[in-house]
Design goal:
Helix content is about 40%, strand content about 15%. The chain is an alpha/beta fold. Strands 10-9-11-12-14-13 form a 6-stranded parallel sheet, with helices on both faces. Strands 1-2-3-7-6 form a 5-stranded parallel sheet, with helices on both faces. It has a 5-stranded mixed sheet with strand order 16-18-17-19-20, with helices on one face. Helix 7 packs across helix 17. The structure holds thiamine diphosphate (TPP) and magnesium ion.
Length: about 650
């Protein structure tokens, strides 16, 4: 057997020295997981550092992202060009790609952004699912695997349960979770807060469970061998020592998140018999590392043809354009009242089963209307299915979708109620940060959902979403706007989209006024006269309310321009001249109507001109709730009259 000890020490000392130089970082985890990582990279991981984005590679995810130096050391040692020695020396510094926590950089070998604990495990489930789907669709000989490292923290986080339960149910046998069971987290021993029997926990959700010694190379190798062919996802519980090799800090929380210090580094070098200068890797060891992936050359060449046939999202826009052309033709004269969630479903009925797109819902399929009638169910018997029943696991779903989107093999969408966007927020934020493109369908988007009451009536959620940088929020008012929002969302490649839809029926009011091909997020939907005294901005279900309000105002000789703004995110990306012109009015007065919290709209107008809701809703029929909050044409028109007189 290979002598892995010094190969692992390369990781340990690169990590120790980079953290020391940065004067911050986490040396303990890389020191503790170096042995496992070395065996994995030398003998199992199918990858090609010369072609980091080779579509049929295995994925490596570091869910315990604080140990980022483990990943950077591995990538540098294995020969990924973008992670060179200068990047290692500039760990955590401005402009380097070796950020404090790994940041999604697929052409550098960083498969996903991690750091918020629990997310990486769940992302890995999404990657494994996308790869199983790919394998099933393309009838691949070998399904790429996903190896994910996690620590105690990831297993304590609730999201991990949602993700592992889903993965077990779907029998994602290409997923291998490697647990750094060092019994230490920041506050000290895990005995303080964590007494799970993790093996039983994983067994109970249908995983293949193995355990061993994370510093015994033979044991590591045997266990990794055992999980190569299984019919379930695998959990390998490795007992490890955090800060392995440090005489005074090993097995202690003190090695978790601060530099070892120069004295302790001297002692650690002595302990591990390492005599090199900082960042020096002996040439024989470096060569051994660089050669370690050569064993994959054969499979890389053999699968070249198969890889080149995998188009991923390359033709996606053309396919999407076709869909919208047909949908537009079918719906352009549609004139019946309809909930926008139903209009959205009508769009999904057009999706071809061979399009690289699949979606789902967190157990609200019939309410979110997220399933196209032609979509088959994705299950362990049919990985090619186009519709996923995520179960009641919103947070897990959002993180799983990030994993799917990060593979760039599929577009993905899913659904839940807008009020439950809060359950998903951490993953939505990460999608934005990673510049990936999952689409969330959020139905029941206001008090308009009625009797389910304040727990289900979103108030602040839509603005919570608008506050996430690099994201697109959509709230269409009818069928045509829903089409335009879906079309735009599917065309966005570098940001997530959130499509907020009504439960209640809405009239068709935008027909023929909306140009699907040059949709700018906002436009004049109605004008009571050529010259407008005031401008009223409204979104979604409140656009028709704004039109009725304007009718009452016109009877009092006040003419309004109603700007429907289904996407302020998109509107705000337009030229300032366009934005100014769209909103200007004779009296220079802008009013806003939206059945949600008002604060966001302060950038458009003064507080007293915003009509929304800054308290929780009420359990009653929708009409009564709108009445309670004064969102009626009569009340709004009288308030507007008072403001301008
Ligand atoms: C969601 C989340 N909460 C808290 C933290 C801060 N944090 C980073 S590491 C850590 C302890 C993790 O313990 P473990 O996974 O066992 O890591 P080890 O100390 O063994 O490396 C905590 C609380 C975080 N990164 N993410
Ligand atoms: Mg730990």
């Amino acid at each position: 057997m290979k002598n892995y000890t010094n190969l692992a020490n390369c990781i340990r000392f690169l990590s120790i020295e980079a953290v020391e130089k940065a004067k911050s970082g986490h040396p303990g985890m890389p020191m503790g997981m170096a042995d496992i990582a070395t065996v994995l990279f030398h003998d199992f991981l199918v990858h090609n550092p010369k072609d980091p984005e080779w579509v049929l590679r295995d994925r490596f995810v570091l869910s315990n992202g604080h140990g980022s130096m483990l990943l950077y050391s591995l990538l540098y040692l294995a020969g990924y060009k973008k992670i060179n020695l200068s990047q290692i020396k500039n760990f955590r510094q401005l402009g380097s790609i070796t950020a404090g926590h790994p940041e999604y950089e697929p052409d550098a070998g960083v498969e996903i952004t991690t750091g918020p604990l629990g997310q990486g495990i769940s992302n890995a489930v999404g990657m494994a699912l996308a790869l199983k789907r790919l394998s099933s669709e393309k009838k691949l000989k070998r399904t790429p695997k996903v190896y994910v490292f996690c620590g105690d923290g990831c297993l304590m986080e609730g999201i991990s349960q949602e993700a592992i339960s889903f993965a077990g149910h779907l029998k994602l046998d290409n997923l291998i979770l490697i647990y750094d069971n060092n019994k230490i987290s920041i506050d000290g021993s895990t005995d303080l807060a964590f007494s799970d029997n993790s093996n039983l926990r994983f067994k109970s959700v249908n995983w293949n469970v193995l355990f061993g010694d994370g510093h015994n190379h033979k044991n590591i190798k045997d266990l990794l061998k055992k999980v190569q062919k299984t019919s379930q996802p695998s959990f390998i519980n490795f007992k490890t020592t955090i800060g392995f090799g440090s005489p005074n800090k090993a097995a202690k929380a003190s090695s978790h998140g601060s530099p070892l210090g120069s004295d302790e580094i001297v002692l650690t070098k002595k302990e591990l018999n390492w005599n090199e200068k900082p960042f020096d890797i002996p040439s024989n060891l470096l060569k051994n590392w660089r050669d370690s992936s050569k064993r994959n050359n054969k499979i890389y060449t053999q699968t070249k043809k198969a890889s080149s046939k995998i188009r991923g999202l390359k033709d996606f826009q053309k396919q999407a354009d076709r869909i919208f052309k047909s949908a537009f033709r079918q719906f352009k004269d549609f004139d019946s009242p309809q909930a926008t969630r139903k209009s959205s479903e009508a769009v999904l009925h057009f999706i071809d089963s061979n399009m690289p797109l699949f979606g789902g819902s967190a157990d609200l399929t019939g309410s979110n209307n997220t399933k196209g009638k032609q979509m088959s169910i994705l299950s362990h018997k049919n990985y090619s299915g186009q519709y996923v029943h995520y179960g009641v696991r919103e947070h897990g779903m959002a993180a799983i979708m990030n994993g799917i989107a990060a593979t760039k093999l599929y577009k993905t969408y899913s659904g839940t109620f807008l009020s439950f966007a809060d359950y998903m927020k951490p993953s939505l934020r990460l999608a934005s940060l990673m510049k990936i493109d999952p689409i969330q369908v959020f139905t029941h988007d206001s008090i308009g959902l009625g009797e389910d009451g304040p727990t289900h009536q979103p108030i602040e959620q839509i603005n919570m979403l608008r506050l996430i940088p690099n994201s697109y929020v959509f709230r269409p008012c009818d069928m045509m706007e829903t089409l335009a929002c879906w079309k735009t969302a599917l065309s966005i490649e570098n940001a997530p989209s959130f499509i907020c839809l009504s439960r209640q029926n809405l009239p068709q009011i935008s027909n023929k006024k909306i140009d699907l091909d040059s949709f700018k997020g906002a436009y004049i939907i109605n004008q009571t006269s050529k010259i407008s005294d005031i401008t009223i901005i409204a979104t979604g279900s409140e656009v028709s309310l704004a039109i009725e309000t304007a009718d009452l105002l016109s009877k009092q000789k006040i003419n309004s321009k109603i700007v429907s703004m289904p996407s302020s995110s998109l509107f705000e990306k337009q030229k300032s001249s366009f934005r100014k012109k769209l909103l200007q009015s004779k009296l220079d007065q802008i009013f806003v109507i939206e059945a949600g919290s008002t604060m966001y709209w302060n950038k458009y107008t003064k507080t007293e001109n915003i009509f929304g809701i800054d308290e929780f809703g009420a359990s009653a029929p929708a009409k009564d709730v709108f009445n309670k909050f004064g969102l009626t044409p009569k009340n709004l028109s009288s308030k507007i009259m008072k403001r301008i007189r």
